[in-house]
């Protein structure tokens, strides 16, 4: 996923543009610090709150992990704002992007889960939640939820399943996926370690739960080193048929 | 089916159940009316159509190579599997050819979310048509339906370019009555053969300037029950074209060059598959937004079948080997020449 950049304009003085995160509507590069002439300030309903989410599916388990930093521009709003939300006993969703939309989206999903439970007398399966989320996101095709979602859980057969989404609802079942601000750094590492890509003559060993948890921890430590929006702490949710087990591990705070 | 469950669920919100109304909403002027039956009508439909002039802070996924053509064995559809998003590969293993029903697939190009959802809506509508009328809607009808559904969104950022590939069955109550078991020329009616033979003219057709061809099609269809392979290109800007060969996407110019030289009606299935694979491979070689693997689907009178996904890396090495063998052969030939 493209490195999302903050979509809100700093109040500028003297009509010069500070070196700040630019709206993606521009060239995508950072503009130099020079006088550009009068700049129109516009209210943007979006903001970028950072954060990275990762999910891995194993033979009989799934892991959803996220960092817990909530930032905006140069500030950190909170060091304890995890981005994994428990939906059912077998499904966890990780949402990163604009925190306001994350909160609303999870509220809507919770409400729809309850309604399904009441009218169908059973819990929604991971696949069904993924399909439903796709239509919820597409319903706002022309004013999207600025959220990168990844659902991790167990499917009906008890195997691990990961579903990754784009902000407008296109989704796909995967074995592993990283989303959020450090996704471009983490995804190639996961491709190599879990997907055995770009290596020749290597034995494809299936991933065990403990190895997967260790890998996730290592991967987030690396992400915190290089991505400013990722850090503070790591929240890991391990989903097995016994239930959901949550662990927290500290990361770099700078 | 998940979509059926989703449809039933919508009844909780809607006051009027749309099953009694006309089955397909052709020619509805206002988009809002149509949205009653669609999955995203839980909030007030009017508000969904207020498009605030806000620049999006993120890019949406795009870019592809897809192709489809008719031949004596039915329809062959092929696509790459790379889904890119402003310079990053969002997904190296995406599915661009989606089955709509047992005898139709749709290759999708454009924004992945738009394509995925609209093909899903199309399959729902076709299933409802089948349940209400006892027969499948023809590919031409399905293309018209999709085109009319996309029309209210003309001018917006919606981007869907789909090729609907399928086999129009002559079946009533499950029987195929036009030589459905055979896959050679006997399985198709005259109109299908005419389309296939006119490969050149169909490629030159411009947007909606084919009323004469369409008109003829329509008349002949009234008389005989059309049965055979069929190919339609539908685009969110309003284009709806019938043809025998289409390629869509950023890599399509490269694919067209391979297809134009090799595609003939008389191809066998293996030849057609290798041509399709070669065309996608060439496109992925030159186009940055296409790559990774190739998916090939074959639709015959019995329905669609899918080949297992092939990594184009293997194709690259096979070609390299072929070229080296060719060069070695040339060198030995020259040596033999000089030796005389």
Automatic annotation (TrEMBL), chain A:
<protein>
    <recommendedName>
        <fullName>Proteasome subunit beta</fullName>
    </recommendedName>
</protein>
<dbReference type="GO" id="GO:0005839">
    <property type="term" value="C:proteasome core complex"/>
</dbReference>
<dbReference type="InterPro" id="IPR029055">
    <property type="entry name" value="Ntn_hydrolases_N"/>
</dbReference>
<dbReference type="Pfam" id="PF00227">
    <property type="entry name" value="Proteasome"/>
</dbReference>
<comment type="subunit">
    <text>Component of the proteasome complex.</text>
</comment>
<dbReference type="InterPro" id="IPR016050">
    <property type="entry name" value="Proteasome_bsu_CS"/>
</dbReference>
<dbReference type="InterPro" id="IPR023333">
    <property type="entry name" value="Proteasome_suB-type"/>
</dbReference>
<dbReference type="InterPro" id="IPR001353">
    <property type="entry name" value="Proteasome_sua/b"/>
</dbReference>
<keyword id="KW-0963">Cytoplasm</keyword>
<dbReference type="GO" id="GO:0005634">
    <property type="term" value="C:nucleus"/>
</dbReference>
<keyword id="KW-0539">Nucleus</keyword>
<dbReference type="GO" id="GO:0051603">
    <property type="term" value="P:proteolysis involved in protein catabolic process"/>
</dbReference>
<comment type="function">
    <text>Component of the proteasome, a multicatalytic proteinase complex which is characterized by its ability to cleave peptides with Arg, Phe, Tyr, Leu, and Glu adjacent to the leaving group at neutral or slightly basic pH. The proteasome has an ATP-dependent proteolytic activity.</text>
</comment>
<comment type="similarity">
    <text>Belongs to the peptidase T1B family.</text>
</comment>
<keyword id="KW-0647">Proteasome</keyword>
<dbReference type="GO" id="GO:0005737">
    <property type="term" value="C:cytoplasm"/>
</dbReference>
TrEMBL record, chain B:
<keyword id="KW-0963">Cytoplasm</keyword>
<dbReference type="GO" id="GO:0005737">
    <property type="term" value="C:cytoplasm"/>
</dbReference>
<dbReference type="InterPro" id="IPR016050">
    <property type="entry name" value="Proteasome_bsu_CS"/>
</dbReference>
<dbReference type="InterPro" id="IPR029055">
    <property type="entry name" value="Ntn_hydrolases_N"/>
</dbReference>
<dbReference type="InterPro" id="IPR023333">
    <property type="entry name" value="Proteasome_suB-type"/>
</dbReference>
<dbReference type="Pfam" id="PF00227">
    <property type="entry name" value="Proteasome"/>
</dbReference>
<protein>
    <recommendedName>
        <fullName>Proteasome subunit beta type-11-like</fullName>
    </recommendedName>
</protein>
<keyword id="KW-0647">Proteasome</keyword>
<dbReference type="GO" id="GO:0051603">
    <property type="term" value="P:proteolysis involved in protein catabolic process"/>
</dbReference>
<dbReference type="GO" id="GO:0005634">
    <property type="term" value="C:nucleus"/>
</dbReference>
<dbReference type="GO" id="GO:0005839">
    <property type="term" value="C:proteasome core complex"/>
</dbReference>
<dbReference type="InterPro" id="IPR001353">
    <property type="entry name" value="Proteasome_sua/b"/>
</dbReference>
């Amino acid at each position: 996923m493209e490195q999302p950049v903050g979509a809100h304009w700093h109040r500028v003085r003297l009509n010069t543009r500070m070196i700040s995160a630019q709206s993606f509507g521009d060239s995508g590069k950072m503009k130099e610090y020079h006088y550009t002439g009068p700049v129109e300030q516009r209210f943007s309903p979006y903001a970028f709150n950072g954060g990275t989410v990762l999910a891995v599916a194993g033979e009989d388990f799934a892991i959803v992990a996220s960092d817990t930093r909530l930032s905006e521009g140069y500030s950190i709003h909170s060091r304890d704002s995890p981005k994994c939300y428990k939906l059912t006993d077998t499904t966890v969703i990780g949402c990163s992007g604009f925190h306001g939309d994350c909160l609303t989206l999870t509220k809507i999903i919770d409400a729809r889960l309850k309604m399904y439970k009441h009218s169908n007398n059973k819990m929604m399966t991971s696949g069904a939640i993924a399909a439903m989320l796709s239509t919820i996101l597409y319903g706002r095709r022309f004013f999207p939820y600025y959220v990168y979602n990844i659902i991790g859980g167990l499917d009906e057969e008890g195997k691990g399943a990961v579903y990754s989404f784009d902000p407008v609802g296109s989704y796909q079942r995967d074995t592993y996926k990283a989303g959020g601000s450090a996704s471009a750094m983490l995804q190639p590492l996961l491709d190599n370690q879990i997907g055995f890509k770009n290596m020749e003559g290597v034995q494809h060993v299936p991933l065990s739960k403990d190895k997967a948890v260790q890998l996730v921890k290592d991967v987030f430590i690396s992400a915190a080193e290089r991505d400013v929006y990722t850090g503070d702490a790591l929240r890991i949710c391990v989903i097995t048929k016994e239930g959901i087990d949550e662990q927290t591990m500290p990361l770099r705070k700078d | 089916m998940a979509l059926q469950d989703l449809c039933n669920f919508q009844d909780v919100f809607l006051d009027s159940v749309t099953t009694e109304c006309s089955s397909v909403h052709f020619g509805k002027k206002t988009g809002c009316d149509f949205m009653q039956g669609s999955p995203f009508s839980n909030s007030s439909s009017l508000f969904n159509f207020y498009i605030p002039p806000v620049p999006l802070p993120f890019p949406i996924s795009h870019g592809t190579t897809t192709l489809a053509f008719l031949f004596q064995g039915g329809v062959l559809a092929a696509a790459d599997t790379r889904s890119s998003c402003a310079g990053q590969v969002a997904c190296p293993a995406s599915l661009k050819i989606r089955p709509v029903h047992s005898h139709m697939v749709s290759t999708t190009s454009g924004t992945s979310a738009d394509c995925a959802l609209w093909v899903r809506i199309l399959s729902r509508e076709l299933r409802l048509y089948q349940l209400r009328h006892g027969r499948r809607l023809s590919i031409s009808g399905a293309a018209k339906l999709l085109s009319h559904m996309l029309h209210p969104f003309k001018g917006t950022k919606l981007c869907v370019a789909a090729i609907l590939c399928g086999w129009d069955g002559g079946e009533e109550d499950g029987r195929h009555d036009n030589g459905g078991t055979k896959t050679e020329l006997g399985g198709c009616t005259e109109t299908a053969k005419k389309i296939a033979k006119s490969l050149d003219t169909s490629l030159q057709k411009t947007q909606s300037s084919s009323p004469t061809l369409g008109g003829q099609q329509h008349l002949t269809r009234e008389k005989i029950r059309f049965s055979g392979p069929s190919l339609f290109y539908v685009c969110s800007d309003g284009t709806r074209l019938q043809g025998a060969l289409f390629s869509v996407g950023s890599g399509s110019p490269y694919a067209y060059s391979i297809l134009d030289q090799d595609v003939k009606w008389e191809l066998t299935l293996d030849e057609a598959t290798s041509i399709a694979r070669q065309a996608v491979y060439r496109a992925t070689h030159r186009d940055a937004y296409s790559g990774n693997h190739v998916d090939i689907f074959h639709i015959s009178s019995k329905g669609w079948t899918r080949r297992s996904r092939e990594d184009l890396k293997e194709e690259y090495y096979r070609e390299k080997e072929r070229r080296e063998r060719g060069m070695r052969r040339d060198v030995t030939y020259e040596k033999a020449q000089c030796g005389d």
